[in-house]
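Write out structure tokens for Tyrosine recombinase XerD.
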Amino acid sequence: MLNMSEMSLHDSHGNRLYLNAEERAAFLDVARKQPARDRTLCETLHFTGCRPSELIEITPARIDLSGGTVALRSLKKRKDASGAQKIVYRTVPVPPDYLDTLNTAHGIREAQKSRKLAAAPIWPLSRVRIWQIVKRLMIEAGITDAPHRSPKGLRHGFGINATVNSIPLHMLQKWMGHAQLSTTAIYADAVGKEEQDIASRMWG
């Protein structure tokens, strides 16, 4: 089993495991042409960097429309000082346009008025079904058949996009639900805009 501290952005053959900026944009463009359920599902993965197993637990109660955040339950096992397992939630800021779409498609604000509806999953699907939806849209977006064409590739792409845009690692660690900062630090190794600008001077 892969140790989190050994997590990499490339496999043993050098293939990248993340979607680049162009692929992320193409995926989002295709997602926005889908029926409401698939569109919002894919936009949630794109804008929060969550895992499919975390996405299927999201309920209307965890959507803060006025605060502009989505609360996610980190499903990786954690233990407190006594050694007992603890439940960890994290909030991720998301774009207002995405929240407007989510509210319109799923009636989030209305659902929050009912305890029963507020606690019901927005996407009552299996992880396998989510994987199938994401893969279908990635194929439609023209993303190459390679290891990064997967929900995990989308999650890694979220991490890289954040570091390229100068999001502090400790903040990204919180958003991605990493227990250790060393895990988040792998995204700092990605080639960012600044590094490309400096390298371009050698080629100019």
